[in-house]
Amino acid sequence: MVLVLTTEPVAPTTISSALVSTPMNTSSNGQTVRAISYGIPDGDIIYEIVANMKRSNQPKNFICTADDMYFVFIEEKKHTEILALYDPMTGEHVHYVKLSYPAYKEITLMVTIPKQPYLIGLIDSEKGIVMNVRDKKVHLTLPKWGGQISSNGRYGLYAPTCGGLEIFDFRNGKVVRTLIPKIAEGVFDIMAFFTPTNEHVIYYHKGKRTIRVFRAKDGPQLVDMKCPAKVRQGTATNDGRILVVGYEDGAIQAFLIVDRSDESMVDYLRSWRIHQLQSTVEPERQKTAERQLE
Asked: pLDDT category, 289, cuts 50, 70, 90?
């Protein structure tokens, strides 16, 4: 199935419909969020959920937990934000989780915790909270955590906007490796993430407009390159070999992540060069053959 999310400003009315799983009172200063599940390939509507949330929040505040156990979003009930849990297959409401932990601040991002079907990450401007949504309890508080986590769920990244980059153990929050020391470099937006294989860490500094790549297991920096424009988004392929970067001017670049400690990289580069050569030579051969026929 496919889940489609849409948002629209709300009017001070009460929404009620046969298709809507949960009728809801809306307020004039919020927005309505609709989650519609379509069956594949026929496209029939399986269920529709309507929720009310603050206008300041965005549809990114919706996630499915690991193993698709719960579909979670932030709803606003009586001017208070809560977590609403639904069954992602049927759309049935499971329960609510009150966000009443100490030092609560407005959630800016929710993240899935790999390998943990009952845990999610709640990120605000100062910290990250690991919440057990089944037991409705805070599992762990991680100051400075921005939601970055390895695909195996074992490690996270501290990448504060004021500088520095550290890998920490996700079980207890203890730092296991410092990649960039805490040096004052001003306050700038940071993008940091593990590659899907967890072998490398990618770090983009908006102020310097540079991308740095680190080997995760022992921490050395592999590259520090200047970007031609501001980066809007970055991701790595599933095999962890290629970094794809999208810029504000619309350009997209792909970079090979070359790690000399990886012996298989030599064979990979050799096959990649052969492929590049063939993709260049073959069109020229076709043009030559066409000219000879003429």
From this structure: low
